[in-house]
Amino acid sequence: MAIASAARTARIDSPWRNDFPLLLEGSERRPLAYLDSAATTQKPQCVIDAEGEYYRRLNANVHRGVYELSERATEAYEGARERVARFLGASDPSEVVFVRGTTEALNLLATSLGWGFLRPGDRVVTTEMEHHSNIVPWHLLRERRGIDLRFVSLTDGGTLDRESFRREHEGGARVTTFTHVSNVLGTENPVRELADEAHASGSVVILDAAQSAPHIPLDVQRLGVDFLAFSGHKVFGPMGIGVLWGRRELWDRLPPYMGGGEMISEVDRQVITYKEPPYRFEAGTPNVAGAIVLATALDYLQGKVGFERLIDHERRLLTHAWERLSGAFGSDLRIFGPTPETGHHAVLSFSLKGVHPHDVASLLDAEGVAVRAGHHCAQLIMKRYRVPALVRASYSLYNSSEDTERLVEALGKVHKLFGS
């Protein structure tokens, strides 16, 4: 079919784009339309500078050094923990454990809960909406500890089936773990409602906030969950650093995830004692630079940007993109997930009739448009909607409506090439 005409809405510019050097440099072919922020965000200059500043002026191992440089590094590292606690609305910084990212955080919980909390036959409830990072660790626990792993199903519209959620908690559950925002569908789940329902069944509640932390203000008291994880590289910070927050009374009950230096109190031939949380869960030399630079990224996100302005900017971008794609390609393009009006954040996952998503992504790259294609580490979603893969365009604060126009223009060439 011919591409349908669609009127362009008023231009949406980003007031923050100039903070990101990589986007200003673009690619060798043409300026880059970067639409893969759900995989990783670009970094503002202040974050890039903070990384170098740490290694120029502060590099030392933390906690055990009695010399001035080590003490300054320790102060900065623990200051970063306090900064993260404020970002999450947590009252106690000792509830914040630094990890490599959301994947390690969820593996830590599956392992420690499996050793210290769960017994064979105990029910763990997750959902078909999850990233593999919130499925595979529980499958490993099913194989090794014999837990009863259950999955909440999805509706045709891309939301969790609330009746399925209720049904999987009948008779009680021990752990319930789900995502805040889907990395494929963009769906925002009603966390407090789900947490309250899961708690009523006797469950500990874990929230994967990897896709919500860059877009939605987080308050662990308001959300009502017991654990929450997010990754630094998705909130404009460095790779290799992440956060796992948990209620202190639960941390106190859990055994350590890894053994080694820093997490022990005393070691003898037959006896070992561990430090109090959070250090019990931070074996070895931590990513000191990563934690400190993450604090800089959070300052940038909450300070210079601000969630109120960010939410408005991304809402307008997503609505514009949805309208442009739907108007340009009609029934030849299918967008998955709820509409922007019913709760959809930052990502647009779609299929183009007659073209494999990998071909779409490769051809868009030739036009300087960076999107992601594949199953997005969410194969249960692909199976639910009977697709092998999807193209995903994901937005952030540095995107503008021009990025969407570039996407539509490039897709038009793909559409024409394949003769739809």
CATH fold-level name of the largest domain: Aspartate Aminotransferase, domain 2
N-C termini distance: 6 Å
**Do you know the CATH architecture of the largest domain?**
3-Layer(aba) Sandwich
Give the ordered list of helices and strands: HEHHEHEHEHEHEHEEHEEHHEEHEEHEH
- What is the helical fraction, as a range of percent? 25-40%
**Class of the largest domain, according to the CATH hierarchy?**
Alpha Beta
Largest sheet properties: 7 strands, mixed
Radius of gyration, Cα only, in angstroms?
22 Å
Write the layout of secondary structure elements.
Elements: H1 21-25, E1 33-34, H2 45-57, H3 68-88, E2 96-99, H4 102-116, E3 123-127, H5 136-145, E4 148-152, H6 162-168, E5 175-179, H7 191-200, E6 204-208, H8 220-223, E7 227-231, E8 242-246, H9 248-251, E9 264-267, E10 272-274, H10 288-305, H11 307-329, E11 333-336, E12 347-352, H12 357-366, E13 369-370, E14 372-374, H13 379-384, E15 390-394, H14 401-417
Parallel strand pairs: 1-13, 3-4, 3-5, 5-6, 6-7
Antiparallel strand pairs: 2-8, 7-8, 9-10, 11-12, 12-15, 14-15
